[in-house]
Specification:
This protein has 193 residues and is an alpha+beta fold. The chain starts with a helix and ends in a 9-residue tail after the last helix.
Length: 193
């Protein structure tokens, strides 16, 4: 019955097995977002799905805390988030471009997923973030595999946006806690800790 429902929903293609696989992987990713507090677990689930289609090197996320500060969630920091500047290729305004696009970032091929909930020209209270999937230079993925990966990321956008927003909130609270802790043990008169 699931295949029949997916067939009826999809008006552009007839690949039922691909749709069933997409549905299963999206369900698994949603479960990972709901059940796990760790952003690293969510990234691992996405990486497992994408590795079946394209040669994934690593997955990173960039989330703006405010106008000046950006958190970079990368494998080297175990996706905990550290303050960093995003690559210049990600500075394009939100109104431009599709939700998912394949383009070079830092001279290497990548998929960029716009996770921003901000509306161009509208209210700026939402999350401003992008997920960056860096690809290995070799082997070059087929167009159909790249399109399938882009479809998966577009469908998983909402769950990934929730995971990045939650990780950003937790990390910003950690940074504030560390700031106040350092302030509480710092002597303002002598400048010593």
């Amino acid at each position: 019955s699931l295949e029949c429902g997916l067939y009826l929903i999809n008006s552009t293609g007839r690949d039922i097995m691909r749709l069933a696989t997409l549905h299963r992987e999206l369900h698994r990713l949603t479960r990972a977002v709901v059940n796990s507090r760790s952003f690293q677990d969510v990234v691992t689930a996405v990486e497992d799905v994408l590795a079946q289609q394209i040669p994934v090197e690593q997955i990173e996320a960039f989330a703006h805390m405010d106008e000046r500060q950006c958190l970079h969630f990368e494998p080297l920091s175990q996706h905990r988030g550290k303050l960093a500047d995003p690559p210049p290729e990600l500075h394009r305004p939100l109104a431009d471009g599709p939700i998912v696009e394949a383009r070079p970032v830092g001279g290497r091929p990548a998929l960029v997923l716009n996770l921003s909930s901000r509306t161009p020209g509208g209210d700026d209270d939402g999350l401003c973030a992008r997920l960056l999937v860096r690809l290995r230079p070799e082997p070059i993925p087929a167009e159909a595999d790249l399109a399938a990966a882009c479809d998966f990321l577009a469908e998983a956008r909402e769950a990934l946006s929730i995971a990045v927003a939650r990780a950003t909130e937790h990390r910003s609270l950690d940074l504030q806690r560390m700031h106040w802790l350092e302030r509480s043990i710092h002597d303002p008169l002598t400048g010593l800790y």
